[in-house]
């Protein structure tokens, strides 16, 4: 029996969330959509320019460059985080279940990313960094990890992977725990080795959690901003000018709020499509365990 | 607009620092600056000012350079910007364009402020279309900074160098001499291994925006380069000038010869960090860095004048000013404070702190004496003020900065030759002025 009173109560309970959602998400999004149709530098009144910002965006080589750089970064980050994360998770799962080690794994993730970036900026510095000191000590050339256009993006990706891999590993480890021990026992009885078990049993059975981790890492790495802002500021020669940093520059260095809003909305669209495709491809909502 | 302003004020209520009149009838002015080293000196000015004007008290709000301009702009959007603001010449055009700064020309005229008391050229920087936006507070010039120990060992005299873009003059000779490879061979000796350099002769500030204030700009001007058709507020830049391309090519050559670190292997921690570590012998720097270098405990540094180029010795000359926020509720009080900041009374206080050179000529001399009293030899910077050029001031400063610094990076990396990169950049820059 449906009670009308329940409906009202539900609304009352939902109200805090709904109001928060409306004030902090819906309203700013609508404003953003409106600003993307204007020319606005914060100080003047917004001037309506129709789709002018979007037309400009299509012909802006720096925007396309920022997308290219971002995709490059996302690819490196996901590859590093997933491979390293799976490795760590498998070790945790099969070798040790020590709570201490699991907690230690999370330490880099707990350090604020600006601190991480600063730390690595010192370590990787071309002339004064510890790592280059080691390289030169070994008779090798020093490397401009963050100052060479060929290395900077990879360095940033590795720095962030270092910070995030513990968290990824923990998520994957939780996924591995979902696989029933009976399956492993059966595999062991049939004479399957560690490696084979991992690829034939563990990986396929944790597909939903893999999909989840993939989506979260993808969206997270699309939002790269702080490490770039601290270490390279988009340089050298646009090599690390990722799309979030580019939006930020348009908005708060050049004060082109309208154009920045148009860039941001385009990014929302791209991210939405990517997530949808990923979820479909990985059939994330069904599990093979059922 | 009004709604947003109210909302923002509500959110930022404690942080935005708008002026308030408290119940007892005193007015509190907020004064924004970025240099924490100077905050003490201006607090002394504020105390002296409040003593003379019992109804007005000053609250200093200091924000680091990196956040300063963003904070300022967002505060203006919310309508709660500081009443009086420390302003830099290349940033003020955008605020003027949006009507955020108060025209103080009528007050300057009414109070008969003596504009002749400032060093020549400084006061005019702040005039646009007959309206005046600020009174000068200090100035800075550029000189060579070098590691005295390394210079002595190399046996070089840096006191009167010459430079030209073709062979680099005695400046390049000194730089070569100061460069030492891993085997102890100097840059001008046979057998010098440029792939294994232990100490670089020069650590140039190459990533230096669109003006090259700390190096390439000064040498380019001494080579006959002009940035812009009219300063301030020209509308046509000359970044495609061969004079600039020659200069940039010379800097690139230093890298190729191993006298300067490769651009992609250059520390991102700033040239002072590298010089302080002893991995480079010489640099080009501004007078605001005096304390940093002379206060270094790791190395001993001294200053020398910039080298004399084909057109003589040319140092960039930059000035700051105090301006009034157009939205202030206390125009009269703010003007009184600006007038005091721009007077010898306050600038003498700043001078005695020996941090920067105040804009009032007599206070500038007083600052020199204060430096000397502390045993610092800063003559190179004062000498540099004899023959200077003003850095270009125009609209679109932030975009020009990005275009030119990217082009310069391509030159330093050897990806493009100077003429190609700078010609393309100049077209982009000038398109900003014709395109709307």
From TrEMBL, chain A:
The membrane-spanning stretches of this chain are 9-27, 71-92, 104-123, 205-225, 257-277
Keywords tagged on the record: Cell membrane, Membrane, Sugar transport, Transmembrane, Transmembrane helix, Transport
Pfam families hit by this protein: BPD_transp_1
Q: How does it sit in the membrane?
A: Multi-pass membrane protein
- This protein's major location comes to membrane
Give the UniProt subcellular location, in the record's own words.
Cell membrane
* Record GO cellular component, one term: plasma membrane
In terms of InterPro entries, this protein maps to: ABC_transporter_permease (IPR051393), MetI-like (IPR000515), MetI-like_sf (IPR035906)
Single GO BP term: transmembrane transport
What CDD domains does its record include?
TM_PBP2 (cd06261)
Oxidoreductase as a keyword?
A: no
**Record PROSITE patterns:** ABC_TM1 (PS50928)
All residue ranges annotated as the ABC transmembrane type-1 domain in the record: 63-278
The Swiss-Prot or TrEMBL record describes its family as follows:
Belongs to the binding-protein-dependent transport system permease family.
Name the record gives this protein: Multiple sugar transport system permease protein
Species this chain originates from: Nonomuraea pusilla
TrEMBL record, chain B:
Subcellular compartments: Cell envelope
- Renumbered to this chain, the signal peptide range is 1-21
Return the Pfam families for the record: SBP_bac_1
- Which InterPro entries does the record cross-reference, listed alphabetically? Bact_solute-bd_prot1 (IPR050490), SBP (IPR006059)
Alphabetized, the UniProt keywords read: Signal, Transport
* Example of a GO cellular component annotation carried by this entry: cell envelope
Please indicate which superkingdom the organism of origin belongs to.
Bacteria
Q: Does the keyword Transport apply?
A: yes
Checking PANTHER family in the record gives:
ARABINOSE-BINDING PROTEIN-RELATED (PTHR43649), SN-GLYCEROL-3-PHOSPHATE-BINDING PERIPLASMIC PROTEIN UGPB (PTHR43649:SF31)
Sequence similarity: Belongs to the bacterial solute-binding protein 1 family.
The protein in question is named Carbohydrate ABC transporter substrate-binding protein, CUT1 family (TC 3.A.1.1.-)
């Amino acid at each position: 029996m449906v009670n009308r009173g329940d409906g009202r109560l539900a609304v009352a309970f939902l109200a805090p969330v709904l109001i928060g959602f409306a004030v902090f998400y819906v309203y700013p999004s609508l404003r953003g959509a409106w600003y993307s149709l204007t020319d606005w530098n914060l100080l003047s009144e917004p001037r309506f320019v129709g789709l002018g910002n979007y037309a400009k965006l299509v012909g802006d080589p720096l925007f396309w460059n920022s997308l290219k750089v971002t995709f490059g970064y996302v690819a490196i980050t996901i590859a590093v985080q997933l491979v390293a994360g799976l490795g760590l998770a498998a070790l945790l799962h099969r070798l040790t279940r020590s709570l201490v080690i699991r907690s230690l794994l999370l330490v880099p993730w707990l350090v604020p990313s600006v601190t991480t970036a600063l730390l690595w900026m010192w370590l990787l510095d071309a002339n004064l960094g510890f790592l280059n000191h080691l390289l030169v000590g070994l008779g090798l050339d020093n490397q401009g990890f963050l100052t060479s256009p060929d290395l900077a993006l990879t360095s940033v990706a590795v720095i962030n992977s270092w910070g995030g891999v513990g968290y990824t590993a923990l998520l994957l480890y939780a996924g591995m725990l979902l696989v029933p021990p009976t399956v492993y026992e059966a595999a062991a009885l049939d004479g399957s080795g560690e490696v084979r078990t991992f690829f034939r049993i563990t990986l396929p059975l944790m597909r939903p959690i893999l999909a989840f981790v993939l989506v979260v890492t993808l969206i997270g790495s699309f939002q790269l901003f702080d490490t770039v802002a601290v270490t390279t500021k988009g340089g050298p020669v646009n090599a690390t000018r990722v799309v979030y940093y580019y939006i930020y520059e348009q908005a708060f260095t050049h004060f082109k709020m309208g154009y920045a809003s148009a860039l941001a909305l385009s990014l929302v669209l791209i991210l939405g499509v990517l997530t949808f495709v990923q979820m479909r491809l990985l059939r994330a909502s069904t599990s093979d365990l059922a | 607009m009004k709604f947003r302003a109210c909302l923002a004020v509500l959110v930022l209520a404690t942080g935005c620092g708008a002026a308030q009149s408290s119940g007892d009838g005193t007015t509190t002015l907020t004064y924004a600056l970025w240099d924490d080293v100077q905050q003490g000196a201006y607090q002394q000015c504020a105390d002296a000012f409040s003593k003379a004007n019992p109804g007005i008290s000053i609250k200093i709000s200091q924000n680091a350079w990196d956040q300063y301009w963003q904070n300022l702009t967002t505060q203006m959007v919310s309508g709660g910007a500081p009443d009086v603001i420390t302003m830099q010449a290349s940033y003020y055009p955008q605020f003027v364009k949006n009507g955020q700064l108060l025209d103080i020309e009528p007050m300057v005229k009414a109070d008969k402020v003596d504009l002749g008391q400032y060093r020549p050229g400084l006061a005019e920087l702040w005039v646009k279309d007959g309206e005046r936006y600020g009174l000068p507070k200090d100035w800075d010039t550029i000189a060579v900074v070098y590691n005295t120990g390394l210079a002595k060992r190399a046996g070089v005299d840096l006191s009167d160098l010459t430079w030209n873009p073709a062979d680099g003059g005695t400046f390049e000779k000194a730089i070569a001499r100061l460069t030492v490879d891993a085997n102890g061979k100097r840059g001008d000796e046979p057998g010098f291994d440029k792939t294994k350099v232990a100490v670089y002769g020069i650590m140039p500030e190459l990533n230096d925006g669109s003006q090259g204030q700390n190096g390439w700009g000064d040498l380019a001007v001494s080579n006959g380069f002009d940035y812009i058709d009219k300063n301030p507020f020209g509308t046509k830049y000359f970044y495609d000038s061969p004079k600039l391309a020659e200069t940039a090519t010379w800097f690139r050559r230093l890298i190729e010869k191993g006298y300067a670190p490769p651009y992609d292997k250059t520390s991102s921690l700033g040239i002072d960090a590298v010089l302080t570590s002893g991995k480079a012998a010489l640099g080009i720097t501004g007078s605001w860095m005096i304390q940093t270098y002379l206060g270094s405990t790791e190395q001993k540094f001294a200053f020398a004048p910039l080298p004399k180029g084909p057109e003589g010795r040319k140092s960039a000359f930059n000035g700051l000013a105090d301006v009034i926020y157009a939205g202030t509720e206390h125009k009269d009080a703010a003007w009184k404070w600006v007038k005091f900041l721009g007077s010898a009374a306050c600038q003498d206080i700043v001078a005695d702190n020996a941090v920067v050179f105040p804009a009032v000529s007599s206070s500038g001399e007083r600052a020199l004496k204060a430096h000397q009293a502390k045993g610092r030899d800063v003559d190179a910077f004062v000498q540099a003020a004899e023959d200077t050029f003003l850095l270009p001031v125009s609209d679109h400063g932030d975009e020009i900065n990005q275009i030119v610094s990217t082009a310069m990076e391509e030159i330093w990396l050897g990806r493009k030759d100077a003429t190609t990169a700078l010609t393309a950049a100049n077209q982009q820059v000038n398109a900003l002025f014709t395109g709307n």
